[in-house]
Design brief:
By secondary structure, the protein is mainly alpha-helical. It has one domain (5-136). It is built from 4 helices and 3 strands. It has a 3-stranded antiparallel sheet. It starts with a helix and ends with a helix.
Amino acid sequence: MVVHPVNVRLMLRTYGKQLTSAKRLARFKRALVLSGAQDQLTISREAKRKELVERIAQEVIENLLVNGQENPVVNGVLEDLEQDLGEKVLFDYPLDGGEVQLLRQTEEGAKEIDPDEKMRILRRLWEITLDRVDGTML
C-alpha cells in the first residue's frame, strides 16, 4: 500500500481542525456553565418544550458560534446581541487553551471585556438565542 505525503498532510490538517474545534467547544461550555445558562427542567409539557428549546439553543451556540460557521440563525442572534449592546462583540479563542475571550472593538483596536461584563454578555447571548429558537419552533 502506497501512502502519499499529501494525503498524510491532509489527514493531519483535518485532525488538527477537529482538535481545535473540540478545544473551543470545551472552553465555551465552561464559560456557559459559569454564566448560569444551563438550568435543568422537569416534566410538564411547557417544561419539556422549554428544555427542548434550551438544548437547541445550546447546540446553536456551541456548534455554530464556537466554530464560526455562517448561518441565518447565528447571524440573527449576533445582530440582536450587537443591537442590544450598541456595539460589536468579538469572540476570540486563545491558542493556549484558555477560556473564550470577549473583545470590544475600539478605535485603538480590540480590547478584552472585564469578567463581570463578560458574564452579563454571555447571559444576554443565551437569552437572545433562547428567544430566537423559541420563536422558530412550532
